[in-house]
Design brief:
Layout (H helix, E strand, L loop, with lengths): L6 H17 L27 E8 L5 E10 L13
Antiparallel strand pairs: 1-2
């Protein structure tokens, strides 16, 4: 695979990956902790509920830069916060 794939290449690669999951009856799982903020608070209790997509790229002089691509979610709340008995 090339370092940068087109949207169509990514789509095809994902579909092939997904077909392997189906063919081999695989199960995938993951765990995600809060990606930012105060780790002692739940995601719904964070002061800034916005999530951003950023990429690290080299600028024209070859220096790495942290570039904002966009806002992924604004004022995001945990979908199940009302059901939590904690």
């Amino acid at each position: 695979m090339s370092e940068r794939m087109t949207s169509e290449e990514l789509r095809k690669a994902f579909l092939e990956f997904f077909k392997e999951f189906q063919k081999n009856d695989l199960v995938g799982c993951c765990a995600q902790t809060d990606v930012k903020g105060d780790r002692s608070l739940r995601p719904a209790d964070q002061a800034d509920p916005d999530l951003y997509l950023r990429v690290v790229e080299k600028d024209a002089s070859g220096q790495p830069t942290n570039k904002l691509v966009g806002v992924v979610m604004e004022k995001h709340q945990d979908a199940y916060v009302g059901e939590c008995k904690m």
